[in-house]
Amino acid sequence: MVTCARHFEGETRAEISSILEELGDSDPQITITEMSGILTVNTRIDPKDIVKKVHEKIEDEPWAMRYTLRVIPIFATVNTDTESITKAVTEQIHKLKPDDTYRITVEKRHSDISSGEIITQIANQIKNKVSLEKYDWIILVQVLGKISGVSILKDEDILSVEKEKRII
User: Which residues pair with 151 in a beta bridge?
Assistant: First the structure.
C-alpha cells in the first residue's frame, strides 16, 4: 500500500511504477483506490525489497521521491470482518518469538467495523506480551472499506518518505 497527498495519485503511480521497473517488475498492478491519497500495489517483488529500494533512492536522489508519502507492506488481503482479519494475523504469527512484544494498530477508512473488536479478537489469539511503546512487532490492520490488508512488521519495514528525508 502506498499513500500520497490528495490528488497526486497519478504522479505517485508513475513514481512507484518506475521503482518497480528498476526492481524487475515491468507490469505491476497499481490501483488508485476510491480513497483519496491511497494506492494499492500488487507486484511480484517482495514488499520489503521495495521499501529498501525507496530508502536507497531517497539517500541517493532525495528529489526523485516527490509524491510518495508512505510505503506499507501488506502480506495478506482479506474481507473486512473480524474473523478474516484475525485468521490472517494467526497465519503470520510465526514471525514472533516467545519473548517478543507487539502492538496492534488499526487504520480504518470507509468502514464502521469496530477497531476495539478487531484488537480484542487478535489479542485473544496471541500469547506474547503487549507493549504499546517498546514493542518488537506491529500487527498492522489497514481497513479500506470492504477489503483489509494485514501485516506483522517491524517499525523499519514501514517507510515514511518525510521521516527519511529529515534524517538525510
Answer: 140
Nearby residues of 4 by Cβ (< 8 Å), 6 or more positions away: 11, 12, 37, 38, 39, 67, 68, 69
Nearest one of 83, 82, 3 to 39, comparing CA atoms: 3
CA distance 56 to 60: 6
Q: What is the pLDDT of residues 92-105, one digit of tens each?
A: 999 999 999 999 99
Q: Which residues contact 138 (CB under 8 A, 6 or more apart)?
A: 102, 103, 104, 105, 151, 152, 153, 154, 155, 158
For 76-153, the fitting CATH number among 3.30.2130.30, 2.60.40.1120, 3.30.1140.32, 3.40.50.720 is 3.30.2130.30
Q: What angle do CA 133, 136, 142 make, to 5 degrees?
A: 80
**How far apart are alpha carbons 83 and 88 in whole angstroms?**
9
Residues in the chain: 168
Please tell me the distance from the alpha carbon of residue 46 to that of residue 25, in angstroms, as a whole number.
11
| Global confidence as pTM | 0.92
